[in-house]
Write a structure and sequence with these properties.
149 residues, single chain, five-stranded mixed beta sheet, alpha+beta, Aminopeptidase, 5 strands
């Protein structure tokens, strides 16, 4: 039996915040536990978002994925993946694929025509993963940001 067969995918809960923060650090994001709790609370209370966690049998969170319904006038309704991470100690066991399948199922159920993923140009392993599970690179672009606060 592979580890993926022992994984449970469920919607995140506020008590998962500490592990979500730890896993976010593995992605290279420095986010405090308090920031995660505040943001997770808003996300969990917004029906246009979904946030799943992958857990072991003891409910220990080893991965997460977040997406939202992305509606713009120029395109059909899509789900946009905001983040996907699997604990570095559990990678390459099919857990990321399970999380993406759950995101895809949710997206289909809420009427999205597809799932869109944006990934930093430096995340070569992530690109290979998405291609392996059926995603196609459709464009490269620059991202701009302006701080308002």
């Amino acid at each position: 039996m592979t580890i993926a067969n022992k994984i449970k995918i469920r919607q995140a809960e506020i008590q998962d915040a500490e592990r979500i923060a730890t896993l976010s650090q593995q992605l290279g994001y420095s986010v405090t536990l308090e920031e995660i709790k505040q943001r997770l609370d808003r996300i969990l209370n917004n029906d246009s978002y979904i946030f799943y966690v992958a857990t072991l049998a003891n409910d220990y969170v080893i991965g997460w994925a977040q997406a939202h319904i992305y509606e713009i006038i120029l395109m059909p309704t899509l789900a946009l993946l905001h983040g996907l991470v699997v604990d570095e100690n559990y990678r390459n066991n099919g857990i990321g694929k399970l999380l993406m399948q759950q995101i895809e199922k949710w997206a289909y159920e809420v009427g999205c025509e597809g799932v869109s993923v944006r990934s930093s140009i430096r995340r070569k392993e992530a690109h290979l993963f998405y291609e392996k599970i059926g995603y196609i690179n459709i464009k490269e672009q620059k991202a701009f940001h302006k701080t308002l606060i």
